[in-house]
Structure formats: structure tokens, C-alpha cells
Amino acid sequence: MSMSPAPSSSGRTVKPMQLLSMLLAFLLVAGLGGVLTAGLLMPAVGAMGTVSTASTDLFEDLPSELAIPEPSEQSVILAADGSTIATFYAENRIVVGLDQISQHVRDAVVAVEDRRFYDHRGIDPEGMLRAAVNNIAGGQLEGASTLTQQYVKNVLIEAGRVSGDDQAIAEATETSMGRKLREARLAIGLEQRVPKDDILEGYLNIAQFGPSQYGVEAAARHYFNTSAADLTIAQSAMLAGITQSPARWDPVRNPEKAQERRNVVLGTMLDQDFITRAEYDEAVAIPLADMLDIQSAPNGCAAAATAAYFCEYVVKDLLNNESWGKDRAERQQMLYRGGLVIHTTLDRAKQQAAYEEVTASVPVNDPSGVEMAMSSVEPGSGKILAMAQNTNYGNTTETDPSATKVNLNVGLGHGGGVGFQSGSTFKVFTLIEWLETGHSLSDMVASNKRSFPRNTWTISCAPEYKDNYNNATNVEGVPSAPMMSVLEATRMSVNLSYIEMANQMDMCGIIDNAEKMGLRLGNGGDLLPNPAAVLGTNTVTPLGMANAFATLAAGGTYCTPVAITAVQDRDGNDVTVPQSSCTQVIEPDVVNGVNHALQQVVSPQRGSTGIRAVLPGRPAAGKTGTANDDAHAWFVGYTPQLATAVWMGHSNADISMMGSVINGVRNRWVYGGSFPAQTWQRYTTRALEGQPVEQFAQASARQVFGNRVPVPNVVGRPVDQAQAILQQSGFNVSLGTPVPSEWQAGGVAATSPAAGARVTPGITVTIVPSSGPATQPAPPPPADAPAPGGDGEGNGGGNGGGGPAPTSVPRPEDFFPDDFPFN
Questions:
Q1: Average model confidence (pLDDT) for the chain?
Q2: Report field, pTM of the whole predicted structure over 0.90
């Protein structure tokens, strides 16, 4: 049979007879041929013109030193409690030392693969020469590979996989005498510098023991739910029998063949005295099916179940971080082949509670198509404790139409989208600016509709964003009182009051507050400072909002969000990872004022928009938010220990939820104070169970009441003069009903608040005019005289003067309908 010449590793063309000549030269030069070669093969040597110098040169050209890369090893992501979230691997392998591998499996592999392993020096001369003579006609050299040669082959294949060198893989797996010679040359060189046990350890960690199991440790876990250290004789024999043909002897797909192969290995172990007859009889009697305890090892975040989206966030964190490699491909190699142990911030109990409460509000694949997402952050550390949504992680299918790999909690950079309009939750940043610029919660602001022309806005950082803003309205059912305190406007989420507040300030200060607290658009861009932003038109993410509000819970300290706490490499060495960076971005006194106001939002008072988020026995603060037409609904709330954002809506469009049937119930409104607030309340109650009750710091009088000033004493002055004095002092003035007093008519009888009372500048002071001194009542008539006639019709005389007019108006929330679902 004719055959084409085979190329050598140096690029020379090698003929079949030269290959055999090289083999003999190789054996002689290596000092392993000895008498055996001389006695058995001298005729062949003579026929080839002896071991020629040319053949020896070709042999010398072959590489003799094997570069051994670290074998690919699975990486694992762990929760804060050390439990496994997910594993990642290109090859499912867990590298262990020889002392962590059962002696039984070591013996089984040596028995079936290379009985002379501890005697030869890398190759089996007798086997190689016999195979060479049998196969020279076909130019092939099969069989006779020692464990060392098999290890060399696996190392070359692995090096090609790691480097992505398909040519190297092809050369390492080609069926040719040239490959066998290269392996033999490298095996001899390897044994000259590496101890036998180290070679055996390397082989047991690199060899394939199943369709997707590499190394004996991963195989032991997969097939038997045990470790390599605890493998029994029967288990060891089964694994040792798989390596020659993992698919053919796969015990799952081909159990009968696998059992036959196991028994062959057991017989070989008995023949070579690795086991006794009794041990053989016991092992061979065990049905293969009784041995198996198959454990799946899913690859990637799909195995993380309810924590899949948190897992995806961690992966994106690694792949986006330049400290993990020069480019994304290198970082991906590190994750899938680097054997990393990645410790994260995920709190298992909180994660489970988050998923259960989100899906209790809006079930997975709810016919409404409404989605819900929740992110939970630890104030003062930035640790992401939970991240859930009401979708299954994966690709959309006919049976799972809502399945997605898009993380609704985060932006584009971490596998999410562009974010969602935040609605009134964004008012918090206006409130911060209000207090930072010297205002107070008691300041009175207009709450009725008016126009806000372009030229009335201050946007110093981006004047081009000035615009007429005339379309803002209050939510249906919110009273349109002419004036309202900032505290009440916050508690009831009055849109027009907040537009009024923002119009008195620089929009850039409001946006700056949000960005100092870490908030960005979902696409990673800067927030837009247009007037409509006051009511939440910027598209942001649940994680961004949760972390921004965590700044308030932490007394004004912003911490960058963090999911990874530590990483160890394959050798157990700590790898430097980015840590959360914490900075004081808002003065504590301002934060205390904001927290005071947002606690009123989460209070049982009628009209408080967050009434459904009240935590029994524990203080809480937060803000509701609803985008136009109920397209998105939010509740972002916090305690001193935990900050959490809940969003609901449609991720693919701004679709109104008004009238939607959600979880089987039709809803007239879907506001932040409904589903999101209730979901937040249930989750936070569970998440903080057993934790101490912590109080917020008390707000200062300055933040609540402002720089209070005394009411001037205008009693006795003419009304018009008193009115001018009060107005010049910064107060609004109203007139009450005249009453009799010691002062002449037209003078001031009293004021409310009274003279000298310390009050917030700008409040309304009611002047009570005097109607003059009271007249002396007439003496009673004689007993027998008729009483003076009244005015008839049961009006009781009609002369009685009324008391002073009331100086307060009904509470605005008294106007709400009973079924109003607060915003």
C-alpha cells in the first residue's frame, strides 16, 4: 500500500521507512532499546541502512521539552453564605492534588492504561516497536501509548484549546506515526524532569472521564455525588474504563457497555494484584445502576434559578472590568478556564424573599404582560443583597413567553435596558436641593395650576434645556389648594408644588444631587436637566434608585454598588477586586430633613401616598412614583439598614396599566402606592425579621421649620398699616371677621399666630380687625314686662355676633375619595 510522506514537526517531509528509522534511532539515543532492539530488529535496521545519521538528525529535530499550561478549571460564584450560585467552565474540571485522589482510582488507571508505568522511562519500547512493525504499511502507529504519552497528548490538546489554536489541536489529535514520535520524544523529556506521581496526578486531572467531565474530581461528583478522595473500587474501575472512549462507555447513555468495561478493568486490577479476589467479587456484583447518583453541573447563570439575574450582573461586572484582562475575550477565558472562586454579596434569604414577593404581586407570565423588578442594597456599604424579577432567565419560548436574559434591574452595561421613567420618586432630588438652598419643610408653596414660561427657568449648566412647562397637573383626586407646605406636598406627592419649588431654583442643582447619589440614565448617559425631569422623565434603573436612596439611609454617604467581595485564583491566592467607594455627598442635617419628610410619606395618615408601605413597629421612609398614564409605577423605600426599589410596568414600551387585569384583579389605577408599595412592605418585613429596630436621626428645627422669626406686634394699629408691616416682614396676610375689642373699630384686635410667636417666614398671618368696644348690655326688663321681640322664624333674636373666623382650612386629604389609590 502506498502512502504519502508525513510532515515532521520541523516541516521536513518524512517517508514511512524514515519514520521507523527515526523510531529506532529514538529508542537507541534514549538508551531504552538495549539488547531487545539489537536482538529483535537488526534485520530491519540493516534493511534500512542501519540507524542512519539522517534519521538521528530528524529525531533530534523533535521537541523534547513540554510546556505544561495550567489546565482549564471551572470557576464558581458563591453567595455571601458560601453556597454555590453558579459554575462556569469551558471544560468541567476541578483540579485536586494526588493526596485528594483515592488510591483505588490511581491503581485502576495504571492497571488498564499502563501496567509498566512505574517501570518505564516515558515510553514502552516493546509495545511501540511491535505496533510500528504491525502498522508500518499504513503509515499509522496505533496503541502502545504510555500514561506519560497520553498525558503529553492531553496537554497539547489543552494548550490548543486555551490559546484558541485549532491547528495545534489538529496536530495533537492526528492519527499518524509523526504524532506518536513527537509524543514519545516529549514523554521521555518529561520523565527526565518530572516525578512519576506528578505525571499521574496531571493525567488524572486533565483526562476526559465523561462526555463533559474532565478530571477525576468532576467525574466523581457528576457520576457518584462524591469526591475523588472517596471513590470505591467499583467506582474507580468504572471511571478508569471511560477514558479511552468517553462516549462509547458513557454509563448514562450506554449502561450495559459501561458495566462490561468496568468489569474488564476490575479483572485487570485483580490480575495485577491491585485488589484481592474478595474485593473483585464484591465490586463486580454491584449493578452499575445502583452505583450511579448523577449530579448535573449546569454551565452559567441558568443554574442560579431565582438568583440568575444577580449572577448575570456579576458576570457582566467581571467582563466589563479591565483589571481582569486586556480585553473581553481574555476576561472570558479567565472566567471559563481560570478556576476562580468569586465571593459575592448575595443574601440568600433576602433573595428568596424578593423573588417570592415580586412573583406574588405579579406572577411569572401573568396574562397582563406586566413585569416587576426589585433591587435591594445595604446602606453604607453599597452591597447588593437581592435582585429579582418576575421572569424566568433564558430565551423566550412558546411555553415561557416572558423568559428573558435582560436584567430589568440594571442598565445596558450590565445586561439590562435603557431604564424606565421614575415618576415622582425623582422629587426626592428636588427636595434635597430645596433644603440645601436654605428652605424648609414648612415653607408654603403654590399647589394650583399655573404656567411656567421658558424664561422663568434657571438651568445654568445647560440653558438649551429651558422650555415652557404648562402641562403639569396634579394626580386625579389631589386637592388644588392655593398654598401648601412642602412637607404636605411631599407627603401627598403634589406635582404642581414640586414644579413650583424647582422653578425657584437651578435645575442643575437638582440633577447634580441625583448624579452625586450615583444615578445615571439606563444607557449610562447623564441625566437631562429639562423642567419635566422634576416629575421623573429621565429613564433610570431599580438598582440605581435603590442605591441612591441608600445614600439617604446612610446619612448622606454614597457608596458605589458592589456585588463581588473577594476572588481567589486556582491556587487560593487572593485577587485584587474593586471595592465599593464611599463618599459623603449630602450634609447630614439636610439628609435628616429629607428623611423626616419621607417618613411622612410612609405613615398611616390619610393622604400619605406610601400608606401601604408602613412597617409595623419599625420606622421607614420612601417615595412613590407613577409615570404618565400609569405606564410605570415605583416605590423606593428604606430603613437605616436596608434600601429597596420596586418597579413595575412593561420593559419594551410605555404601555398604560390603567384598567389592567393583574394577578386576576382588574385595577382602575396602578400607582406607586399600590402594587410596588405593598410588595416593598412585604419584602422589607421579611428581610428585616429578627434585626434590631433602628431609628432615623431627628431632623433639626431649621430643616423642619426654617429660620423662624417672631410675628410683629401690630395689635391696635390700623388694619392697612398692620398689613403693610406684616408683608414687609415676609408674611402673607389674610383678614378675618371683625370682633369686638378694646381697640377702636378699624384697628387690629389680634393676629393668628399671635404677636411674638416664632414662625416660619412666608406663612399666612391672619389679621382679626376690631369692630370697636362691645356695647353695655341693657338691664333686664321687669319680670312682668313682655320680652323684646325677636326677628321671628326661629332665629333667636338675630343680634348675636360670631366669634373670629377660623384661621385654618380643612386638611387637603379630607377631599380624597375613599377608594383613592394614593400615588
A1: 87
A2: no
Question: Would 720 be classed as within a structural domain?
Answer: yes
The residue behind cell 332665629 is 795
Q: Which residue has the higher pLDDT, 582 or 444?
A: 582
The alpha carbon of 328 is separated from its chain's Cα centroid by a whole number of angstroms, namely: 19
Overall domain count for the chain? 1
Does 322 reside within a domain? no
Residue 83: pLDDT over 70: yes
Encode pLDDT of 150-198 as tens digits: 999 999 999 999 888 899 889 888 887 788 888 888 999 999 999 999 9
Contact between 391 and 402 (Cβ < 8 Å) = yes
436 in helix, strand or coil? helix
Nearest alpha carbon to residue 636 among 589, 683, 578, 567: 683
Evaluate whether residue 435 is within a structural domain: no
Instruction: Give the C-alpha separation, 644 to 637, whole Å.
Output: 6
Q: Please, what sign has the CA dihedral across residues 310, 315, 317, 323?
A: positive
Residues making up the chain, counted from first to last: 823
Domain residue limits at 736: 708-769
Return the CATH number at 728. Answer: 3.30.10.20
DSSP state of 787: P
Predicted confidence (pLDDT) per residue in 440-486, tens digit: 999 999 888 888 999 999 999 999 999 888 777 887 556 667 889 99
| Position 82 confidence tier, pLDDT thresholds 50, 70, 90 | very high
Spell out the SS3 assignment of 467-528: CCECCCCCCCCCCCCCEEEHHHHHHCCCHHHHHHHHHCCEHHHHHHHHHHCCCCCCCCCCCC
Kind and range of the H or E run holding 92 = strand 92-93
Q: Quote the cell numbers at residue 440.
A: 424648609
The Cα 646–Cα 591 span in angstroms is: 22
Q: Is the dihedral of CA 42, 48, 54, 60 positive or negative?
A: negative
717 found inside a domain: yes
